[in-house]
Design goal:
The chain contains seven helices and four strands, in the order ββαααββαααα. By secondary structure, it is mainly alpha-helical. It has a two-stranded antiparallel sheet with strand order 1-2. The protein has a two-stranded antiparallel ribbon with strand order 3-4. Strand 3 and strand 4 form a beta hairpin.
Length: 143
C-alpha cells in the first residue's frame, strides 16, 4: 500500500487519476457530498448531538444509516484513494492501530476522512454548508 503514518499522521502518496475522477463524481452528487461533510463535521466536533448521530451500530467506521444508505456506505468505503487503496482498507489499518478499543474521532478519524475524500478545510464556515447542516441535524430519520 502506498500510504504510511509519520508522527501519528497519515501520509498519502499521490499517484492516481482515478481518485480525481471518482472525487469529481462524488462531488457532483451534492446531497451525498454534503452528507459526507456533515459526517466529517460530526467526527471533528464530537459533541452530544454528534455522538448520538455517530453512535449508531448500523454501519462501519462510524459511517451509519443516520448519514448514508447501505449502498452509499459501500460506495464510500470502497472509494479509491490517491494511493490506490480503498477507504475501507485505510480505515481498517487505522483502526487496527488502536489500543484499548479507543479512537479519537476528532483527532484520528476526522483528519483521515478529510484527506481520503479531499474535503477542503473551512467548508464549515460556508453559508451553504451551515444551512444544510442545520436542516440535516434537525432531522431524526435515518436512511
Amino acid at each position: 500500500m502506498k500510504y504510511f503514518y509519520k508522527d501519528n499522521k497519515m501520509i498519502i502518496i499521490n499517484n492516481s487519476n482515478m481518485f480525481e475522477e471518482k472525487l469529481e463524481e462524488l462531488q457532483s452528487n451534492c446531497d451525498l457530498w454534503f452528507r459526507l461533510k456533515c459526517f466529517h463535521y460530526d467526527l471533528k466536533h464530537f459533541d452530544k448531538d454528534a455522538q448520538f448521530r455517530l453512535d449508531n451500530p448500523c454501519g462501519e467506521y462510524y459511517m451509519n444509516n443516520y448519514y448514508f444508505t447501505q449502498k452509499e456506505m459501500h460506495y464510500l468505503l470502497d472509494f479509491p484513494t490517491q494511493c490506490g487503496s480503498t477507504v475501507r482498507e485505510i480505515l481498517q489499518s487505522l483502526f487496527a492501530k488502536v489500543t484499548n478499543n479507543e479512537i479519537c474521532t476528532s483527532h484520528t478519524i476526522a483528519p483521515a476522512i478529510e484527506k481520503l475524500y479531499g474535503i477542503k478545510k473551512g467548508y464549515e464556515n460556508e453559508k451553504v454548508f451551515k444551512k444544510y447542516f442545520k436542516k440535516f441535524a434537525s432531522t431524526k430519520a435515518s436512511f
